[in-house]
Design brief:
Length: 477
Protein backbone atom coordinates (compact mmCIF):
# COMPACT_ATOMS: atom_id res chain seq x y z
CA UNK A 1 0.00 0.00 0.00
CA UNK A 2 1.12 3.58 -0.69
CA UNK A 3 1.50 5.40 2.65
CA UNK A 4 0.93 9.16 2.93
CA UNK A 5 2.82 11.36 5.36
CA UNK A 6 2.67 15.03 6.25
CA UNK A 7 5.76 17.14 5.52
CA UNK A 8 6.24 20.79 6.47
CA UNK A 9 8.59 21.70 3.64
CA UNK A 10 9.17 20.57 0.09
CA UNK A 11 12.46 19.13 -1.08
CA UNK A 12 14.27 19.86 -4.29
CA UNK A 13 15.61 16.32 -4.64
CA UNK A 14 12.27 14.45 -4.69
CA UNK A 15 10.13 13.48 -7.64
CA UNK A 16 7.12 15.76 -7.50
CA UNK A 17 3.40 15.55 -8.19
CA UNK A 18 1.64 18.90 -8.44
CA UNK A 19 -1.78 20.34 -9.17
CA UNK A 20 -2.20 23.86 -10.54
CA UNK A 21 -5.07 26.00 -11.80
CA UNK A 22 -3.29 28.41 -14.19
CA UNK A 23 0.03 28.41 -16.03
CA UNK A 24 1.32 31.15 -13.70
CA UNK A 25 1.24 28.62 -10.87
CA UNK A 26 4.14 26.80 -12.53
CA UNK A 27 6.40 29.58 -11.26
CA UNK A 28 5.74 28.50 -7.67
CA UNK A 29 7.28 25.11 -8.42
CA UNK A 30 10.75 26.64 -8.83
CA UNK A 31 11.37 25.12 -12.23
CA UNK A 32 13.87 26.19 -14.86
CA UNK A 33 12.24 28.12 -17.70
CA UNK A 34 12.69 25.33 -20.24
CA UNK A 35 10.95 22.86 -17.90
CA UNK A 36 8.01 25.23 -17.41
CA UNK A 37 7.72 25.74 -21.17
CA UNK A 38 7.78 21.99 -21.76
CA UNK A 39 5.01 21.45 -19.21
CA UNK A 40 2.93 24.31 -20.64
CA UNK A 41 3.13 22.88 -24.14
CA UNK A 42 1.81 19.51 -22.96
CA UNK A 43 -1.02 21.11 -21.00
CA UNK A 44 -1.93 23.26 -24.00
CA UNK A 45 -2.23 20.06 -26.03
CA UNK A 46 -4.74 18.64 -23.56
CA UNK A 47 -2.54 16.32 -21.49
CA UNK A 48 -4.18 15.35 -18.19
CA UNK A 49 -0.69 14.92 -16.75
CA UNK A 50 2.28 16.86 -18.06
CA UNK A 51 5.73 15.44 -17.35
CA UNK A 52 9.29 16.71 -17.47
CA UNK A 53 12.64 16.07 -15.84
CA UNK A 54 14.38 18.87 -14.02
CA UNK A 55 17.65 18.64 -12.09
CA UNK A 56 17.37 14.85 -12.05
CA UNK A 57 13.83 14.68 -10.67
CA UNK A 58 10.58 13.81 -12.37
CA UNK A 59 7.92 16.55 -12.37
CA UNK A 60 4.28 15.54 -12.91
CA UNK A 61 1.70 18.32 -13.21
CA UNK A 62 -2.08 18.35 -13.56
CA UNK A 63 -4.02 21.51 -14.37
CA UNK A 64 -7.52 21.69 -12.91
CA UNK A 65 -10.19 22.41 -15.48
CA UNK A 66 -12.80 25.11 -15.33
CA UNK A 67 -15.72 22.74 -14.79
CA UNK A 68 -17.81 22.32 -11.63
CA UNK A 69 -15.80 21.97 -8.45
CA UNK A 70 -16.94 18.38 -7.77
CA UNK A 71 -15.90 17.41 -11.27
CA UNK A 72 -12.54 19.06 -10.74
CA UNK A 73 -11.88 17.00 -7.60
CA UNK A 74 -12.60 13.77 -9.48
CA UNK A 75 -10.39 14.87 -12.37
CA UNK A 76 -7.58 15.41 -9.86
CA UNK A 77 -8.09 11.94 -8.36
CA UNK A 78 -7.82 10.40 -11.81
CA UNK A 79 -4.72 12.47 -12.54
CA UNK A 80 -3.21 11.20 -9.28
CA UNK A 81 -3.76 7.62 -10.43
CA UNK A 82 -2.09 8.38 -13.75
CA UNK A 83 0.86 9.94 -11.94
CA UNK A 84 1.21 6.89 -9.71
CA UNK A 85 1.29 4.67 -12.80
CA UNK A 86 4.04 6.82 -14.33
CA UNK A 87 6.08 6.71 -11.11
CA UNK A 88 5.67 2.93 -10.90
CA UNK A 89 6.72 2.46 -14.52
CA UNK A 90 9.85 4.50 -13.74
CA UNK A 91 10.62 2.40 -10.67
CA UNK A 92 10.12 5.30 -8.25
CA UNK A 93 9.58 4.52 -4.58
CA UNK A 94 8.58 7.90 -3.19
CA UNK A 95 7.41 11.33 -4.27
CA UNK A 96 6.07 14.57 -2.82
CA UNK A 97 2.76 16.32 -3.51
CA UNK A 98 2.66 20.07 -3.93
CA UNK A 99 0.25 22.79 -4.97
CA UNK A 100 0.49 26.58 -4.97
CA UNK A 101 -3.30 26.65 -4.50
CA UNK A 102 -4.92 27.46 -1.19
CA UNK A 103 -7.40 24.62 -1.76
CA UNK A 104 -6.28 21.66 0.36
CA UNK A 105 -9.02 19.42 -1.05
CA UNK A 106 -7.33 19.34 -4.43
CA UNK A 107 -3.95 18.16 -3.19
CA UNK A 108 -5.72 15.60 -0.97
CA UNK A 109 -7.62 14.37 -4.03
CA UNK A 110 -4.31 14.04 -5.86
CA UNK A 111 -2.98 11.93 -3.00
CA UNK A 112 -6.14 9.84 -2.82
CA UNK A 113 -6.07 9.06 -6.53
CA UNK A 114 -2.40 8.09 -6.38
CA UNK A 115 -2.90 5.88 -3.32
CA UNK A 116 -5.98 4.12 -4.69
CA UNK A 117 -4.44 3.87 -8.15
CA UNK A 118 -1.32 2.20 -6.76
CA UNK A 119 -3.17 -0.98 -5.80
CA UNK A 120 -2.36 -4.37 -7.27
CA UNK A 121 -3.44 -7.85 -6.16
CA UNK A 122 -0.30 -9.96 -6.46
CA UNK A 123 -0.76 -12.67 -3.82
CA UNK A 124 -0.71 -15.46 -6.39
CA UNK A 125 1.98 -14.03 -8.69
CA UNK A 126 5.17 -16.08 -8.64
CA UNK A 127 7.25 -13.73 -10.78
CA UNK A 128 7.62 -10.06 -11.51
CA UNK A 129 7.63 -7.09 -9.15
CA UNK A 130 4.76 -5.23 -7.55
CA UNK A 131 4.33 -1.45 -7.56
CA UNK A 132 7.52 0.42 -6.69
CA UNK A 133 5.73 3.46 -5.24
CA UNK A 134 5.48 2.99 -1.48
CA UNK A 135 5.26 6.44 0.09
CA UNK A 136 4.10 9.97 -0.63
CA UNK A 137 4.75 13.12 1.35
CA UNK A 138 2.22 15.95 1.24
CA UNK A 139 3.20 19.57 1.72
CA UNK A 140 0.35 21.99 2.43
CA UNK A 141 -0.20 24.30 5.37
CA UNK A 142 -3.94 23.54 5.55
CA UNK A 143 -3.53 19.76 5.74
CA UNK A 144 -2.85 18.41 9.23
CA UNK A 145 -1.54 15.05 10.36
CA UNK A 146 -5.01 13.87 11.43
CA UNK A 147 -6.39 14.37 7.93
CA UNK A 148 -3.43 12.51 6.46
CA UNK A 149 -3.97 9.57 8.81
CA UNK A 150 -7.68 9.49 7.98
CA UNK A 151 -6.82 9.10 4.31
CA UNK A 152 -4.34 6.34 5.14
CA UNK A 153 -6.95 4.49 7.20
CA UNK A 154 -9.65 4.83 4.55
CA UNK A 155 -7.33 3.72 1.77
CA UNK A 156 -6.23 0.70 3.81
CA UNK A 157 -9.89 -0.29 4.18
CA UNK A 158 -10.45 0.01 0.44
CA UNK A 159 -7.38 -2.14 -0.14
CA UNK A 160 -8.75 -4.72 2.31
CA UNK A 161 -12.11 -4.80 0.52
CA UNK A 162 -10.37 -5.18 -2.85
CA UNK A 163 -8.20 -8.00 -1.53
CA UNK A 164 -11.22 -9.85 -0.16
CA UNK A 165 -13.13 -9.51 -3.43
CA UNK A 166 -10.14 -10.65 -5.48
CA UNK A 167 -9.52 -13.76 -3.35
CA UNK A 168 -10.72 -16.97 -5.05
CA UNK A 169 -13.13 -19.22 -3.22
CA UNK A 170 -10.40 -21.87 -3.06
CA UNK A 171 -9.05 -19.68 -0.24
CA UNK A 172 -11.92 -17.45 0.84
CA UNK A 173 -14.81 -19.71 1.75
CA UNK A 174 -17.27 -18.53 4.40
CA UNK A 175 -15.16 -19.86 7.27
CA UNK A 176 -12.01 -18.14 6.02
CA UNK A 177 -13.99 -14.95 5.39
CA UNK A 178 -14.89 -14.95 9.08
CA UNK A 179 -11.26 -15.59 10.01
CA UNK A 180 -10.24 -12.51 8.03
CA UNK A 181 -12.90 -10.48 9.86
CA UNK A 182 -11.61 -11.70 13.22
CA UNK A 183 -8.07 -10.67 12.29
CA UNK A 184 -9.30 -7.22 11.32
CA UNK A 185 -11.15 -6.83 14.62
CA UNK A 186 -8.08 -7.87 16.63
CA UNK A 187 -6.11 -5.11 14.93
CA UNK A 188 -8.82 -2.43 15.23
CA UNK A 189 -9.39 -0.80 18.60
CA UNK A 190 -13.05 -0.63 19.60
CA UNK A 191 -14.28 -3.09 16.96
CA UNK A 192 -15.91 -6.22 18.34
CA UNK A 193 -16.83 -9.29 16.32
CA UNK A 194 -18.95 -12.36 16.91
CA UNK A 195 -19.14 -15.21 14.40
CA UNK A 196 -22.12 -17.56 14.49
CA UNK A 197 -21.42 -21.07 13.20
CA UNK A 198 -23.83 -23.39 11.42
CA UNK A 199 -25.26 -24.87 14.61
CA UNK A 200 -26.04 -21.41 15.96
CA UNK A 201 -27.55 -20.36 12.63
CA UNK A 202 -29.76 -23.46 12.71
CA UNK A 203 -30.79 -22.73 16.29
CA UNK A 204 -31.87 -19.23 15.27
CA UNK A 205 -33.80 -20.60 12.30
CA UNK A 206 -32.15 -18.52 9.59
CA UNK A 207 -33.86 -20.44 6.81
CA UNK A 208 -32.70 -18.21 3.97
CA UNK A 209 -29.01 -18.54 4.77
CA UNK A 210 -29.35 -22.27 5.43
CA UNK A 211 -31.24 -22.85 2.18
CA UNK A 212 -28.57 -21.16 0.05
CA UNK A 213 -25.90 -23.16 1.85
CA UNK A 214 -27.56 -26.57 1.27
CA UNK A 215 -25.65 -27.28 -1.94
CA UNK A 216 -22.24 -26.54 -0.41
CA UNK A 217 -19.76 -28.76 1.41
CA UNK A 218 -18.59 -25.72 3.42
CA UNK A 219 -20.66 -24.42 6.35
CA UNK A 220 -22.14 -20.91 6.44
CA UNK A 221 -21.26 -18.22 8.95
CA UNK A 222 -23.06 -15.16 10.24
CA UNK A 223 -20.73 -12.30 11.14
CA UNK A 224 -21.64 -9.57 13.61
CA UNK A 225 -19.34 -6.56 13.92
CA UNK A 226 -20.07 -3.76 16.37
CA UNK A 227 -18.44 -0.44 17.09
CA UNK A 228 -19.99 1.29 20.09
CA UNK A 229 -18.12 4.33 21.42
CA UNK A 230 -18.89 5.63 24.90
CA UNK A 231 -20.20 8.98 23.71
CA UNK A 232 -22.15 7.99 20.62
CA UNK A 233 -24.39 10.74 19.26
CA UNK A 234 -27.04 8.21 18.18
CA UNK A 235 -29.21 6.42 20.73
CA UNK A 236 -29.93 3.57 18.31
CA UNK A 237 -27.30 2.19 15.96
CA UNK A 238 -27.01 2.39 12.22
CA UNK A 239 -26.90 -1.17 10.90
CA UNK A 240 -24.96 -1.97 7.73
CA UNK A 241 -25.72 -5.32 6.09
CA UNK A 242 -23.48 -6.73 3.37
CA UNK A 243 -24.04 -9.69 1.11
CA UNK A 244 -21.40 -12.34 1.78
CA UNK A 245 -21.85 -14.89 -0.99
CA UNK A 246 -18.21 -15.87 -1.37
CA UNK A 247 -18.91 -17.63 -4.67
CA UNK A 248 -22.10 -17.88 -6.69
CA UNK A 249 -22.64 -20.55 -9.33
CA UNK A 250 -26.33 -19.70 -9.44
CA UNK A 251 -27.07 -22.99 -7.71
CA UNK A 252 -29.39 -25.26 -9.66
CA UNK A 253 -30.32 -22.17 -11.73
CA UNK A 254 -26.77 -22.43 -13.03
CA UNK A 255 -25.06 -19.36 -14.47
CA UNK A 256 -23.18 -19.52 -17.79
CA UNK A 257 -19.42 -19.42 -17.24
CA UNK A 258 -18.11 -16.75 -19.67
CA UNK A 259 -18.47 -13.20 -18.29
CA UNK A 260 -20.64 -14.45 -15.44
CA UNK A 261 -19.66 -17.33 -13.18
CA UNK A 262 -15.97 -16.80 -13.92
CA UNK A 263 -15.85 -13.71 -11.70
CA UNK A 264 -18.47 -14.63 -9.13
CA UNK A 265 -15.86 -14.60 -6.38
CA UNK A 266 -16.90 -10.92 -6.30
CA UNK A 267 -20.38 -11.71 -4.96
CA UNK A 268 -19.30 -10.83 -1.41
CA UNK A 269 -18.30 -7.27 -2.39
CA UNK A 270 -21.15 -5.83 -0.33
CA UNK A 271 -19.92 -7.68 2.72
CA UNK A 272 -16.36 -6.48 2.10
CA UNK A 273 -17.60 -2.89 1.80
CA UNK A 274 -19.49 -2.78 5.09
CA UNK A 275 -16.54 -4.44 6.86
CA UNK A 276 -14.21 -1.77 5.50
CA UNK A 277 -16.59 1.04 6.43
CA UNK A 278 -17.16 -0.01 10.04
CA UNK A 279 -13.43 -0.66 10.50
CA UNK A 280 -12.61 2.87 9.33
CA UNK A 281 -15.30 4.32 11.60
CA UNK A 282 -13.65 2.55 14.55
CA UNK A 283 -10.13 3.56 13.52
CA UNK A 284 -11.21 7.20 13.27
CA UNK A 285 -13.14 6.97 16.56
CA UNK A 286 -16.34 8.38 15.08
CA UNK A 287 -18.86 9.14 17.86
CA UNK A 288 -21.42 6.88 16.21
CA UNK A 289 -22.80 3.47 17.18
CA UNK A 290 -22.54 1.20 14.12
CA UNK A 291 -23.29 -2.49 13.63
CA UNK A 292 -22.36 -4.51 10.53
CA UNK A 293 -23.94 -7.87 9.68
CA UNK A 294 -22.50 -10.17 7.01
CA UNK A 295 -24.20 -13.52 6.31
CA UNK A 296 -21.71 -15.68 4.40
CA UNK A 297 -21.91 -18.82 2.26
CA UNK A 298 -21.27 -20.02 -1.26
CA UNK A 299 -24.13 -20.98 -3.58
CA UNK A 300 -23.55 -24.36 -5.24
CA UNK A 301 -25.68 -26.90 -7.13
CA UNK A 302 -24.36 -29.93 -5.27
CA UNK A 303 -25.72 -32.23 -2.60
CA UNK A 304 -29.15 -31.25 -1.37
CA UNK A 305 -29.16 -27.83 -3.06
CA UNK A 306 -32.28 -25.73 -2.69
CA UNK A 307 -34.37 -25.83 -5.84
CA UNK A 308 -36.83 -23.66 -7.77
CA UNK A 309 -40.25 -24.51 -6.37
CA UNK A 310 -39.00 -24.98 -2.81
CA UNK A 311 -40.65 -23.05 0.02
CA UNK A 312 -38.26 -21.66 2.62
CA UNK A 313 -39.23 -20.49 6.10
CA UNK A 314 -37.19 -17.41 6.97
CA UNK A 315 -35.80 -16.22 10.32
CA UNK A 316 -38.92 -14.15 11.06
CA UNK A 317 -41.29 -17.01 10.16
CA UNK A 318 -42.32 -15.71 6.73
CA UNK A 319 -42.36 -18.22 3.89
CA UNK A 320 -40.70 -17.67 0.51
CA UNK A 321 -41.36 -19.58 -2.69
CA UNK A 322 -38.07 -20.01 -4.53
CA UNK A 323 -38.48 -19.18 -8.21
CA UNK A 324 -34.77 -19.01 -9.02
CA UNK A 325 -31.84 -20.24 -6.93
CA UNK A 326 -29.68 -17.53 -8.52
CA UNK A 327 -31.74 -14.96 -6.58
CA UNK A 328 -29.89 -16.12 -3.48
CA UNK A 329 -28.42 -12.90 -2.17
CA UNK A 330 -31.78 -11.54 -1.10
CA UNK A 331 -32.46 -14.77 0.81
CA UNK A 332 -29.44 -14.36 3.09
CA UNK A 333 -29.86 -10.58 3.40
CA UNK A 334 -33.48 -11.07 4.46
CA UNK A 335 -32.38 -13.16 7.45
CA UNK A 336 -29.84 -10.47 8.35
CA UNK A 337 -32.50 -7.77 8.13
CA UNK A 338 -34.67 -9.73 10.53
CA UNK A 339 -31.73 -10.19 12.90
CA UNK A 340 -31.06 -6.43 12.78
CA UNK A 341 -34.45 -5.77 14.38
CA UNK A 342 -33.02 -6.75 17.78
CA UNK A 343 -30.90 -3.57 17.72
CA UNK A 344 -33.92 -1.28 17.10
CA UNK A 345 -31.75 0.57 14.59
CA UNK A 346 -32.43 4.13 13.48
CA UNK A 347 -31.45 3.12 9.93
CA UNK A 348 -30.61 -0.08 8.07
CA UNK A 349 -28.53 -0.07 4.87
CA UNK A 350 -28.01 -3.17 2.73
CA UNK A 351 -25.21 -3.26 0.18
CA UNK A 352 -24.95 -6.08 -2.33
CA UNK A 353 -24.01 -7.22 -5.80
CA UNK A 354 -27.64 -8.20 -6.07
CA UNK A 355 -28.96 -7.95 -9.63
CA UNK A 356 -27.74 -7.88 -13.19
CA UNK A 357 -30.65 -5.50 -13.75
CA UNK A 358 -28.84 -2.79 -11.78
CA UNK A 359 -25.70 -3.22 -13.88
CA UNK A 360 -27.71 -3.12 -17.09
CA UNK A 361 -29.56 0.00 -15.94
CA UNK A 362 -26.60 2.26 -15.16
CA UNK A 363 -23.46 0.28 -15.98
CA UNK A 364 -20.30 0.55 -13.91
CA UNK A 365 -20.37 4.27 -13.13
CA UNK A 366 -22.52 4.11 -10.03
CA UNK A 367 -24.83 2.09 -7.83
CA UNK A 368 -28.60 1.85 -7.69
CA UNK A 369 -30.26 3.06 -4.49
CA UNK A 370 -33.82 2.81 -3.17
CA UNK A 371 -35.74 2.24 0.00
CA UNK A 372 -38.16 3.46 2.64
CA UNK A 373 -35.86 5.94 4.39
CA UNK A 374 -36.89 9.58 4.18
CA UNK A 375 -35.64 12.04 1.59
CA UNK A 376 -33.15 13.61 4.00
CA UNK A 377 -31.30 10.32 4.48
CA UNK A 378 -31.39 9.56 0.76
CA UNK A 379 -30.03 13.04 0.01
CA UNK A 380 -27.22 12.53 2.55
CA UNK A 381 -26.22 9.30 0.82
CA UNK A 382 -26.39 10.90 -2.62
CA UNK A 383 -24.29 13.83 -1.37
CA UNK A 384 -21.68 11.50 0.14
CA UNK A 385 -21.64 9.55 -3.10
CA UNK A 386 -21.05 12.65 -5.19
CA UNK A 387 -18.27 13.79 -2.88
CA UNK A 388 -16.46 10.43 -3.08
CA UNK A 389 -17.50 9.76 -6.70
CA UNK A 390 -19.24 6.56 -5.63
CA UNK A 391 -22.50 7.84 -6.98
CA UNK A 392 -26.00 6.68 -6.08
CA UNK A 393 -28.81 6.72 -8.66
CA UNK A 394 -32.04 6.74 -6.64
CA UNK A 395 -34.75 4.56 -8.21
CA UNK A 396 -38.49 4.68 -7.42
CA UNK A 397 -39.91 2.42 -4.75
CA UNK A 398 -43.59 2.55 -5.68
CA UNK A 399 -45.98 0.15 -4.01
CA UNK A 400 -47.12 -1.21 -7.37
CA UNK A 401 -43.90 -3.22 -7.54
CA UNK A 402 -44.94 -5.22 -4.45
CA UNK A 403 -47.57 -7.24 -6.31
CA UNK A 404 -44.88 -8.81 -8.50
CA UNK A 405 -43.68 -10.76 -5.47
CA UNK A 406 -47.08 -12.36 -4.74
CA UNK A 407 -47.04 -16.14 -4.44
CA UNK A 408 -49.98 -18.53 -4.59
CA UNK A 409 -48.47 -20.96 -2.09
CA UNK A 410 -46.23 -18.82 0.18
CA UNK A 411 -46.07 -15.34 1.67
CA UNK A 412 -43.99 -14.11 -1.26
CA UNK A 413 -41.68 -15.17 -4.11
CA UNK A 414 -37.98 -14.49 -4.28
CA UNK A 415 -38.22 -13.12 -7.83
CA UNK A 416 -40.36 -10.51 -9.55
CA UNK A 417 -41.22 -10.07 -13.20
CA UNK A 418 -39.00 -9.60 -16.22
CA UNK A 419 -38.56 -5.84 -15.75
CA UNK A 420 -37.24 -3.61 -12.94
CA UNK A 421 -35.50 -6.53 -11.29
CA UNK A 422 -33.33 -4.28 -9.16
CA UNK A 423 -36.45 -2.66 -7.67
CA UNK A 424 -38.36 -5.88 -7.01
CA UNK A 425 -35.23 -7.23 -5.30
CA UNK A 426 -35.23 -4.18 -3.05
CA UNK A 427 -38.96 -4.64 -2.45
CA UNK A 428 -38.31 -8.23 -1.36
CA UNK A 429 -35.78 -7.03 1.20
CA UNK A 430 -38.08 -4.31 2.51
CA UNK A 431 -40.56 -7.01 3.61
CA UNK A 432 -38.08 -8.12 6.28
CA UNK A 433 -37.54 -4.88 8.18
CA UNK A 434 -39.72 -2.39 10.01
CA UNK A 435 -36.99 0.25 10.16
CA UNK A 436 -36.03 3.09 7.80
CA UNK A 437 -34.28 1.16 5.06
CA UNK A 438 -31.92 1.85 2.15
CA UNK A 439 -30.79 -0.75 -0.36
CA UNK A 440 -27.68 -0.14 -2.48
CA UNK A 441 -27.08 -2.46 -5.44
CA UNK A 442 -23.41 -2.38 -6.46
CA UNK A 443 -23.53 -5.10 -9.12
CA UNK A 444 -22.17 -2.79 -11.81
CA UNK A 445 -19.09 -1.16 -10.23
CA UNK A 446 -17.99 -3.84 -7.74
CA UNK A 447 -15.80 -5.78 -10.19
CA UNK A 448 -14.37 -4.31 -13.41
CA UNK A 449 -13.10 -6.11 -16.49
CA UNK A 450 -10.68 -3.24 -17.22
CA UNK A 451 -9.05 -0.59 -15.03
CA UNK A 452 -10.72 2.81 -14.92
CA UNK A 453 -8.59 5.54 -13.41
CA UNK A 454 -7.93 4.71 -9.76
CA UNK A 455 -10.41 1.81 -9.94
CA UNK A 456 -8.40 -1.31 -10.79
CA UNK A 457 -9.36 -4.30 -12.86
CA UNK A 458 -11.09 -6.77 -10.54
CA UNK A 459 -12.38 -5.74 -7.13
CA UNK A 460 -12.81 -1.98 -6.77
CA UNK A 461 -13.71 -1.73 -3.08
CA UNK A 462 -16.78 0.30 -4.06
CA UNK A 463 -18.92 1.33 -1.11
CA UNK A 464 -16.23 1.67 1.56
CA UNK A 465 -15.61 5.36 0.88
CA UNK A 466 -19.29 6.14 0.37
CA UNK A 467 -20.43 4.50 3.60
CA UNK A 468 -17.59 5.96 5.67
CA UNK A 469 -18.27 9.44 4.31
CA UNK A 470 -21.97 9.04 5.11
CA UNK A 471 -21.20 7.81 8.65
CA UNK A 472 -18.76 10.64 9.26
CA UNK A 473 -21.39 13.17 8.21
CA UNK A 474 -23.95 11.57 10.55
CA UNK A 475 -21.46 11.55 13.43
CA UNK A 476 -20.85 15.28 13.13
CA UNK A 477 -24.35 16.54 12.38
Amino acid sequence: MVILEKRDRSRTDLDTMAVIRTRTHLRALDLPREASVHLSEQLDNGAAVATTRSDGRLMLVHQVGKGPRAGSVEQVRRAGAEMAALLNSSGKGTAQLLTPLNDADLVLALAEGAMLGGYQFRKYKTSGNGPSLKSLSLVHKKVDARTVQELNDLTASVYLARDLVNEPVSFLNATQFSAEIRTLARNTSGLKVQVLDKAQIEALGMGGLLAVNKGSVDPPTFNILEYRPKRAVNRSPIVLIGKGVVYDTGGLSLKPTPHSMDHMKCDMAGGAAVIGAIATAAQRALPLHVVALVPATDNRPGGNAFAPGDVVRMYNGMTVEVMNSDAEGRMILADALCYAERYSPELVITMATLTGAAARAIGTQGMVGMGTANDRIMNELVSAGERMHERVAVFPFWEEYDKELSSEIADLKNLGGDSAGMITAGKFLARFTQRPFVHLDIAGPAFLMAADGYRPRGGTGIGVRLLYSFLRDRAHM
